[in-house]
Structures are given as structure tokens and as C-alpha cells.
Amino acid sequence: MAAYLPNQDYRLDDRSRSPASSARPTARSANRPLRPIQRPSSTSPERRQRSRSDARPRQRQERPSYWQYSCGLCQEDHALSACERFRRQTPFQRYETVERRGYCRNCLARSHLAPDCPSLTGCRRCNYRHHTLLHGASQLEEVSLNIEAVTTPAFAWDLVFVPTAMVRITAEGMEGFSMLRAIVSQSATMSKISYAAFRRLGLQSRSYKGERFTTFTVSPRRTNSDWSLKVNALIIEDLPRRIYSDPILEDPTRCFTNYALADPDPRGNSPIDVELGADTYSAIRKEGCTAAGIGDVLAYNTQLGYVFAGPIKNMPRNG
Asked: Which residues lie below 8 Å from residue 239, measured CB to CB, with a gap of 6+?
């Protein structure tokens, strides 16, 4: 006789359910094994599918708000890499979009820029530090110039002094001031500050025509000076940089006191974090310049102190 299993409803075969056989089972029906009735399982595929479909709307409603983000190009709720409008652009146009909208060139995130990108991966085509969708952009490629190599140039070019100054930087919300090295560039159309210095000083930024700007006040390194200038600067990644590839042995400051210098060590190669452009040059420049005593270097008088500019040596070779 078959063993009884719990939670199962056993019934005799339908052919042995006549009144006579139910009262007195025959030998054939007595030897017939009992057959359990199959009940619908609570985990059937239909029920599981129905439970998933019922739970989906509830899951969308409970999705946290930080999952929602908008594309900087079309303002839809998707990442820039998933934007169809972005993907239809050429690599050149994609690079311009990334730069104007403030995206990281490496991972296409908006929370940071390329120098601070935590991602360890790069382009899947060339392994360089840019996103695969930007591969082929001419801005990322090194242009090879077909220039004939000259073993003995006709001129002896040595180093050229670039006007630099140590300046005090203050801004709203800052405690005290920070000292940064700046370059005075009359040819630059606007002033600039490095992204690293912007983050380090905790400055506030604003966006205009796809670019990020910040505002700070520049003062001379001399603490007894009351001159200051408010500067609107573009935040860029090309700074900081070093301006001299080789050490300079000539000293242009030998005829000046340390107090009169805008940069106490103009021959130094410490990084440049600020570029004061033509938008500030007329306010910084003062009347008067004098020869520094080496080459064609001149000392220009500015509100920040004397700055030095000009070639140390630039003469034809003999023979």
C-alpha cells in the first residue's frame, strides 16, 4: 500500500468510483496506487510574472531622486553617452559639446573634470585618457608637422624672460588670503585661473555660454599696499604650467631691491596658476621701464611691482 504524504489529497481512480465499488473496493481497485491531485503552485510562472508586473510601478515610485539626472544637451533624463542627439554628432562636435557643457572628457560625468577623474579606464580604441565616443576628435590628436630638421640654426636662441608676479588672492567666503604665482600676459583676451587652484581655494563659479568663470580679488604681495583689482577669470585645465624648460643663470634683479619686485624670484620655475590678461593689463601697468642689464630684458613698473620681459640673448651665429 502506498505511503501517505502530507498536504496531498489522494483519490481513487475515476473508474472505481461507482457506488458498489466505493462501498466495497474490488481487488483490482484495491491494488491500484493512489494518485495525488495536482494543485496550482503559488510560485507558478504566471503568478510570478503577474507579481513582477504589479511591483514595477511601485518600484518606479520608490526610486530615489538622485537616480534622476538630465542630459546637458537635450535636457532629457538620461546620461550624455546615451543621448541620441549626442551620438549623431561627429567626434569633433562631441568634443566641443563636452567642453562647453562642463563634462569630464574621460568618463562624461558632470561632477568633475578630466584631471580629477577617478576612472582608471580610457578609450577602448586607443587606451588614451578620453571617452570612446570622443575618439577621432581632432582636438585630441597630435598634429605632425613636416619640418626639416636643422642641426645648426642661424640664430642662437636662449631663454626669454616672461613677466611674472606673486599675488595675493582673496574672495568672498575665503578666510584670509592665498599666495599664487601669476603671469602678466597682454596678448591673452581674458584672465584665467587653473582648475586645481579654483578647487583648492574653494571659489564660487558661474556658467556663461558653456564656460565656467569665477571672481576673485588680486593684490600685490606687499602687505602694506592698499591697491587691489577685482578679476573675472575663466577656469581652465591648461594651468598650472611651468614657463621655463631650462634654468636661467642670469639675474635681472641685481639692480632692484626685493621690496620693489613683483616676483621675488622671477627666474624660478614654480607653477603658474593665474594668467592676468589684457582685461587687467591697463589697470596693472604703470608708467616707466628700465633696462635690467642683461640682454634685451626690460623691467616694467606695475601696481604689483617690477616685472621682467625680453630675450636674454638673440644674436646671429658666426660662420
From this structure: 192, 193, 194, 195, 196, 197, 271, 272, 273, 274, 275
